[in-house]
Design the sequence.
């Protein structure tokens, strides 16, 4: 019978070996690169170390659940939560109940258990265990060039025709609009960002605490991606930030608007940020900007700024254990702030 125990430093190489068997060599190498940052430098780690559970059988490791601890704001209260991330069971031991035990161990040890962007296997297991399904997190795209409408499955002449037809729309949607505040970029999240979080945190029924320490770790320190951070200020106060990066995809260049925060009623701050990102995307020659956003008020402002909602595959499950929230909490997600920057979605 396997036993479930907390991670110990000496487990690293056995976990890496298991990761390679389950996810393949490329993903294992990417995981190795991120590991220290992701699991040991997280400012929300408990004093006892990373929040990782290991399934052992004798000397062998046959499964793990590695999670990302975060502080969340849930209905006006602070809740210690953790995103479930790298869960795996040795191939020869899958579908025998070990995953269920690992999910249960994680869930009983956190105030809220959260999952974002799930594999088919884990999504089904969450379903089987009746975790509340609050996803998918809507995806929104803003076209900047006619190439934004290309589809990989369409033949070139069709793609050209669609591009030509879409051109007038793109010209209107992608036009430059004036900024309405003082903007800059930064590499240092300081206490002004914690103050912003404290001012807006209770505008959301659910959101991960975006204080300076978390933001610095999440968006400045990662070894695998480099982000740009745009900020908007008013009277020496930071009233919003946006995190973005440019990426090459098979169909063209895309700017990913990974995370952002303003007061959701502060249209001027929000518009300024997305227009700043528009300019950066155009300067980088991107064909489109893509973002993921659950909060209805931010989505309304995104649409007003030329974004269209497209199909999303970013599934999201959440289970609050710290106190009783009632079923309606999980169906009314219009004031939940969840983005691509949450969990470890932007790898
Ligand atoms: C996902 C995973 C951790 C589940 O662990 P497990 O020990 O196989 O899970 P359990 O035996 O406790 O539960 C099995 C249930 O999980 C779901 N499930 C697991 N693997 C599945 C798969 N390949 N396809 C569909 N459903 C799957 C099903 O609901 C299944 O129930 P069923 O057997 O009655 O159909 C394991 O399958 C795994 O390591 N998969 C590969 C890595 C992976 O996808 N990790 C998730 C990253 S987000």
Sequence:
């Amino acid at each position: 019978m396997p036993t479930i125990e907390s991670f110990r430093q000496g487990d690293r190489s056995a976990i890496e070996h298991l990761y390679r068997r389950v996810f393949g060599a490329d993903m294992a190498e990417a995981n190795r690169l991120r590991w220290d940052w992701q699991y040991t430098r997280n400012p929300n780690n408990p004093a006892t170390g990373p929040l990782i559970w290991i399934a052992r059988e004798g000397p062998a490791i046959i499964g793990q659940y590695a999670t990302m601890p975060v502080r969340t704001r849930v209905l006006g209260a602070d809740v210690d939560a953790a995103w479930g991330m790298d869960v795996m069971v040795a191939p020869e031991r899958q579908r025998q109940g070990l995953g269920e035990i690992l999910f249960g161990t994680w869930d009983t040890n956190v105030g809220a258990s959260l999952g974002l962007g799930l594999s088919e296997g884990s999504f089904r297991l969450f379903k089987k265990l009746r975790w509340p399904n609050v996803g998918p997190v809507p995806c929104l795209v803003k076209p900047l060039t006619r190439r934004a409408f290309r589809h990989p499955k369409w033949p070139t002449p069709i793609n050209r025709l669609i591009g030509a037809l879409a051109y007038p729309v793109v010209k209107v949607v992608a036009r430059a609009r004036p900024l309405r505040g003082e903007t800059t970029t930064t590499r240092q999240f300081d206490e002004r960002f914690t103050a912003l979080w404290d001012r807006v945190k209770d505008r959301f029924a659910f959101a991960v605490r975006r204080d300076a320490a978390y933001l610095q770790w999440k968006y400045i320190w990662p070894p695998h991606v480099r982000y740009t951070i745009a900020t908007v200020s008013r009277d020496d106060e930071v009233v919003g930030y946006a995190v973005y990066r440019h990426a090459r995809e098979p169909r063209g260049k895309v700017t990913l608007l990974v995370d952002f925060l303003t007061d959701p009623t502060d249209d001027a701050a929000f518009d300024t940020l997305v227009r700043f990102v528009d300019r950066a995307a155009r300067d980088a020659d991107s064909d489109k900007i893509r973002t993921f956003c659950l909060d209805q008020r931010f989505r309304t402002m995104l649409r007003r700024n030329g974004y269209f909602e497209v199909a999303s595959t970013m599934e999201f499950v959440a289970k609050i254990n710290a106190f009783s929230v009632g079923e309606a909490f999980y169906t009314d997600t219009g004031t939940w702030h969840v983005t691509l920057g949450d969990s470890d979605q932007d790898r």
Observations:
- The first strand starts at residue 3 and ends at 6.
- The chain has a mean pLDDT of 94.
